[in-house]
Structure formats: structure tokens, C-alpha cells
Design goal:
The structure is a homodimer of 353-residue chains. Chain A folds into two domains: 209 residues, TIM Barrel, CATH 3.20.20; 94 residues, Beta Barrel (Lyase, Ornithine Decarboxylase, Chain A, domain 1). Chain A has ten helices and 19 strands. In chain A, strand 18 and strand 19 form a beta hairpin. In chain A, helix 3 packs parallel to helix 4, helix 4 crosses helix 5 and helix 6 crosses helix 7. The longest helix of chain A has 17 residues. Chain A is elongated and about 70 Å long. At the A-B interface, strand 10, helix 9 and helix 10 of A face strand 10, helix 9 and helix 10 of B.
Chain lengths: 353, 353
Amino acid sequence: MYIDDLDTPVLVIDLDALEHNLERYQRYFDSHGIGLRPHIKTHKTLAIAARQLAGGAAGLTCQKVGEAETMVWGGLQTDIMIPYNILGKPKLDRLMALARQTRITASADSAHTVRGYSTAALEWGVTLGVVVELECGHNRTGVATAADALALGKLIDSLPGLELRGIMGFPTPPAVRPFLQETIHAFERAGLPCPIVSGGGTPYALEAHLIPELTEYRVGEYIVGGEGHLRAGRHTVEECALRVLATVVSRPTEGRAILDSGSKTMSASTIPVGDGQSMGFIVEYPDARFYGASEEHGHVDVTACVRKPQIGERVQVLPVHLCPCVNEHNEIVAHRAGRVEAVWPVLARGKVR
Amino acid sequence: MYIDDLDTPVLVIDLDALEHNLERYQRYFDSHGIGLRPHIKTHKTLAIAARQLAGGAAGLTCQKVGEAETMVWGGLQTDIMIPYNILGKPKLDRLMALARQTRITASADSAHTVRGYSTAALEWGVTLGVVVELECGHNRTGVATAADALALGKLIDSLPGLELRGIMGFPTPPAVRPFLQETIHAFERAGLPCPIVSGGGTPYALEAHLIPELTEYRVGEYIVGGEGHLRAGRHTVEECALRVLATVVSRPTEGRAILDSGSKTMSASTIPVGDGQSMGFIVEYPDARFYGASEEHGHVDVTACVRKPQIGERVQVLPVHLCPCVNEHNEIVAHRAGRVEAVWPVLARGKVR
């Protein structure tokens, strides 16, 4: 069977492009002595996680306990980091059950989170690794000063059931190096261990070597690209492995085409392109602008296209942001040069807990 | 079990509020002699669709063939409209199989779509109802003039296997009445039947009577509200039946709280509030501003809150747009006054085909 035989919309992955991306990023991180810890939130599948580990990854990153459970119970008993404040007895119990089976490191940015980890680890009789999360400019979670990081590190180091494993941040452009250095030095002066210095994010992945202190790096979309990475020059069209196959269902005006792929298929993510927004790059019509969507309709401006798509025509679309896009789908069809090799269930889809 | 016992994030529905909304909208449409054809894309569950039908709905609306299959094979062999151009043999075969089992009406805005319907209906030996879609200001699909609608109506009426059932549009504010009237008159003059004049959209639902030509109305979010409907005065907080239970996982600064519910839980939908955007209304903290999110983090500005939420505290959040929010979840927990009565699978989740 070929992908041209599949009904649309459908999410397909080009195995040649996937393998190429896996290899080129693994080679980069290997060459700089930085551990590659792929984030499974991008693909949410056992199949790709297993390939990442087989290719030399130092472990996996999962964003929620349910994602880590999917990996571990799926047979990938590897070293897993969950860079998230995990709170409340139901999740802490599940986290400790995982820590019994494999090496787990969670993050914390508050004493509340750290104390919860310790209480649960004691109750379960396990050791949980903990890293202090640093605020690195995303204005999300994380402590904002080296002094706060040190105080939290001391607390982690002092509490039973916990093993202080260092620090992490997101994102980690080269500009955050001074904050990382200051924190590392504070830990050193206090005699605290800091074996892990973990950076993250695809946009700065190939600049990780500019922060020599990094021991490992969390990265998700490197394997598949997407319109944002294409336009930023990080991936070529050919390297954008994960695509939505769509069909033109309406041409209501000369300048507008409607795809069967709206926000429920593409995700609602957009990037600025020109003086507007884009929800996807249409490979066959690079001059088209996928400017908006409702849930089941993709709205495309085809004014600039010399040849215009016709009703019933199929196109390949590179989504803007693959992580939420994959989360909309139950399966990914894996192919090589268009020939279907496998259908992968998106097992970690929707794991919000 | 009570919803306070559920781990977060979790989507819960208040049965009292749901039943209240079902009744008040059914009463409105009954009083004006307009058929209520609820759109199942909002809830995607058999449980709510069955209640809508039991309460007096004239049938259901589904946006994709897979949604209609979920309803029909789930036992709800009711009158279903799919207001979408359905193209390609795989979907047309499934559509005709449904039309063998129950009354189905699909829409079309092109001769291409209409001819596909006729060919498939002939092959399957069934009759498919077809309505002409009118462009009603959304700049999405639909023909833009009464003359184009008439031409398409004539084609539908002339082709075997099809039954011309009238016209539909989305959205249908009172301002579109002249276009509807002009099209109806054109059909009348040409001797074409037009038994269905179908409007749609929750924002204008309670103004449907201002277009007396409407025979039926498609509406989804009326049953559950949401922050947009709350701020527009269409639903009170109490009438917002569907909520995300979330936990505060971080308070990195005095003014910021982070919830365990990001765009993967809430959907990425936003509405303008004040000089920014909102991704949800926090019931316990009406002065807070849920101003942004990453996939697993909800970013909340709590500067304006006199009492501020603490780490570990649980809150109820009214999402902005419930249709994409529900599509992120595998189940909805139904409760009455906090006591859990059922867990409903979101069976039509992810039905993009």
C-alpha cells in the first residue's frame, strides 16, 4: 500500500527523513560530548522512542507521568527525566512506582514540590532523582536566581529519599550560560552535587556546544521539523518528515482553497509569515498561504499561485508545530518513498496526567 | 466518589447545568417552531447526543463522516446532517453505508462534490439528501450568490440518487436574512424544493427567530457555555457546565501562577479580554488572567487577586472554546453537585475523517 491510497486527512512520517534527522542530531551531540535526551512529547510513540534509544540517546524526556508510564510499561526501561513539578498523591504514587522500575529524575522549583517528592519516596522506599528548574527567559516555571536555586538544592540534598542531580532549564539559548555558570559555582561552593546540567529546545539545539557546561539536552522536534524549522533554516523540506496529507474540498473563490484539515488535524499553532500567520506549509504550493482554520476546514490563500489547486486534489502539508499536531491523531502512518511500512499508534496521546 | 477526589487535570460536566441548558434552548427553539439540530462536535459523546434527542431535538449535526458513524453505530439512528463537502471514494462509501441505515443530509458548494454524491448514491442504490451551502460571512465554504446557489440546486435536483433538501449556512446572524430570502425565492421561482433552511452557531442561536425562514438550527456549545459565552452574557458561571479541574503546580513569582493545564488540556483557543488574551476563566479567581499556555503549563497572572492561589490548590477553569477542548480528552466525568455519576468516553474524539 502507498500513502496515495490513504484517505485524508492523515498524518504520515517519512522513515528515510526520520532516520536522517535522528542520525544528524545524534552525531552533533556525540561530537560535543553532550547527552541527547529526546523529548517524546513530539511523537508520543514507542516506535520512535525505541529508535532514538537504539541510535545512542542517553535516555528520554517525558512531560507528564502518563507519558513516562507509556514508555516504561511499553518496555523502554530507560533513564527518564520528567521536567515538571509533580504534585498530589495520585501522581506521586505513580511516579514512585516508575522509580522502582527504572531511573527517574523529576524537576522542582519549590519547596512544596520537593517535600512532596521526599514524603512519597520514603513511603515507597525508593530514591528519586531531582533537578532544580531554572527560569531561563520563558517566564514559565523555575527559580529566577542562583541563590534560590542553591536554597532549593540544599533542601533536596537534605531530605530523605531524594538524590540531588543538578539543574535544568528551558529554553537554553547561549545567553543563559552566565546564569547556569553562577548556579553551578554556587552548588560547587556549597559542596552540592550537580552531575546533570540539562538544556532544552529544538531552536537552540545545534548551539548547545556554546554552553560547555551542558551535560545533556532535551529536544523533540529535531526528528521531524515543521514549518517553523523550515522557515528558520533548521530543516529542509525533505527533512520535514512528518506531514499531513490533505484534500482540497472547496474552491469557493478564485483566491481561496479549503482543505479537509483544520485545527483539529493541524493543531491551532501558527507562525508569523509575511504580514500574516501561517498554519502550515503546502509542499506542492509554496506560494500558497495557509492563513487560518476552523476545526475541520483549512483556509488557504492561493492568490499567489500561478497554477492553483483543484477540488479533489491531494497535498502534503508541513504543520507549524508537530507536538500538538501529533496529539490530535491516534496513529501515524510510517512510509518509505511513499510505500507504507507500518502504522504506529500514538500511545502517549492525551496523557495530560 | 466526588470530583474533588479526581486527579487533575480532568474534564468534568455538571449534569444539573447541562440539563438546564438543554431545556432552555429546546424551549426557545420549540417556541419559535424551529427544529433544534444539535452539533455533536462540541461533546462527541453518545450520552449527551442521546439526551439531546430525548429532549426534543430534530436530529443531529456531525462535521465529519466519522462523527456520524460514531452516532449511528452507537445506536442513535436519527436524522443526521453533515454540513461538509464530502469527497473521495473511501468517505463516499462510508457515507452511503450510513444513508442506508438512516436519513442523511450532506452539504455541497460545488458541482464536483454534487457529482461525487450522485455517482456514489447510484452505486449503493440509496438516496442522499443534499443541501446547498451558502457563504454567510465566514469566508470559508459556500456559494456566494443566489444565482450560484440556484445553479447548484438545479444540478442536485437533476442528478439521480440525490434529493435536494434546501440550503444551509454558517454562521447565520440576522444580517444574512436577505441572502437566504433571495435564495429561497430563486428556488421557488425555479420550482425547486427547499424544505430545509438551516442556520447555525451558538452566538446567534437565540436570535434565530429573527430569521423566520429558518426551519432548523445547528448549535453545539449551548449545552456547556465557556468563557466566551460567559463574557458575552449568554451563559452564567453556573450555566457553564463543562470545566477543567486544574492544580496550581508553581508560583514562580508573586504575580504568576502555573496550572497543570496547558494547551493540551484547554485547547489553544483564546479570546480577547482587556488588553490581552484569555485561555480560560478561573471560577475561584475571577480577577486572575489565564493569559497563555504551553502544552502542559497554564500561565496565569494573579497580580490582581487579593488572595492568591497557593501551590497545590485546585481550581475550576471554564475553557474558551469547548469543542477543541473536548477533543483533547478521552473522557468526561459527569457529576451532580460534585458527586460523580458517570464517566463518558469521548467516542467521536479525533474523527478527522
